[in-house]
Amino acid sequence: MKAIDHLNVLAVGRNAAIMAVVERLLNSHEAWYGLAVTSDEAALQALQQTPFDIVLLCAGISPGEETALWRHLLQRKPDLIISQHYGGGSGLLEAEIRNLLAEHNITLSL
Fold first, then answer.
1. Domains in the chain, please, with CATH?
2. For residues 39 and 17, what is the distance between their CA atoms, to the nearest angstrom?
């Protein structure tokens, strides 16, 4: 099991208002840093600047865009955790992140 003390999450979606909410929810956790972007280009640039652990693919991304983005992200960081996120509020988002960490044998220690 891998233990980390800080979690970086990148969220990619097409609706700026929704992504602002996702970013606020991610950053409401003490040991989490979240960044939300609305374009693939911004996502790839952010990944070059910050060592993200998780990328959430949010609403508005077409299946073709999702496939291409998934491929480009993994080319840049093969151990990146990528998951689809469909919304549902802060409790669901937190549970989703914690489940992803557990699936990849990662614990978040404070």
1. 2-108 (3.40.50.2300)
2. 14
